[in-house]
Each structure stands twice: as structure tokens, then as C-alpha cells.
Write a structure and sequence with these properties.
75% of the residues lie in helices and 6% in strands. It is mainly alpha-helical and 158 residues long.
């Protein structure tokens, strides 16, 4: 299985057109005219959205006329891409429910152990050490509380 460059260029061109259409639609809700006091709130976003639409159409036309059948992404590259994004997605989900510190520790531990091939003791020390380092930097020195989830209440922090 592979994805051709042409298919990817068409998908990106369509995505840019859709983003432009969303911007234009949103801008029209706020008014796109020039009033007595100057431009309405949607005036500039409207034209930016139009530029996005025209840019997407241009990119799509260029893709059609250039028609490159070269491979954009093959199976091996897709597997590497998935092996990066799936752990990141799990990190985000864990962080939302259990907090950034737990999510970071779990992410680093799993990625170091299973993708990096490090031994358990080293993976544990690095993941816990990194979380403690970030805690001291953000919570103690900069006094910027990060999302902690239920761990905050359990540890009595804040």
C-alpha cells in the first residue's frame, strides 16, 4: 500500500479550500462590509478566507496539470508515522484524564522501553526524573500550575 503524491496534493488542496470556506462562512456572520466606523469584524477574515480558497484551487489545478505519480508515503513510512502518532494520541488522552505529569511519565516510559529499547530501570529513572524536573520548573520556580488531574487531589497539591 502506498499513497501517491498526486492524491496527497489533491487532499491538501481540498483541505485548504474547506478551511477557507469555513473562514468565509464565519466572517459573514460578523459582517464583511465597510461601515461608517470602518471595517466590520468579518471584513479582513473574509478576504483571507477567499485567498485560502483561491490558493487551494490553484494548488489543485497545479496538481492536476503536473500529475506526479511518485510515491508520497509507502508502507514502511506509514508504519513509522503511526508508531509516532499513536503513542502521542495515547499521551494526550492520558493527560486529559490523569494530568500532564502522569501522561508524560507514561509516554516517556513506554516510548523509551518499547521503541527505544532501553531497559526498565533506565526508562523509569528518566521518565520519573523528567516529570520531577518539569514539576520543579513549572510549579515551583515559575509558579505555573499545569493540568494534574486526580493526582493533584491525591498528593494534596494546590
Amino acid at each position: 500500500m502506498s499513497i501517491s503524491r498526486f492524491a496527497m496534493e489533491i487532499v491538501v488542496a481540498l483541505a485548504v479550500c474547506i478551511a477557507g470556506a469555513i473562514v468565509v462562512t464565519g466572517a459573514m456572520e460578523f459582517g464583511i462590509r465597510w461601515s461608517e466606523s470602518g471595517p466590520e469584524a468579518g471584513y479582513f477574515p473574509f478576504y483571507v478566507g477567499l485567498l485560502l480558497i483561491f490558493g487551494g484551487i490553484g494548488a489543485g489545478a497545479q496538481a492536476v496539470f503536473a500529475r506526479s505519480d511518485s510515491v508520497f508515503l509507502d508502507r514502511a513510512q506509514l508504519q513509522r508515522l503511526v508508531s509516532f502518532f499513536v503513542p502521542m494520541l495515547i499521551f494526550v488522552i492520558i493527560s486529559v484524564f490523569l494530568g500532564l505529569y502522569v501522561g508524560t511519565a507514561v509516554y516517556l516510559l513506554v516510548v523509551m522501553r518499547f521503541q527505544g529499547g532501553y531497559r526498565w530501570p533506565f526508562s523509569l529513572v528518566v521518565s520519573i526524573g523528567t516529570v520531577l524536573f518539569f514539576f520543579v520548573i513549572f510549579e515551583v520556580w515559575f509558579q505555573v500550575p499545569l493540568l494534574k488531574g486526580p493526582l493533584e487531589e491525591f498528593l494534596g497539591i494546590y
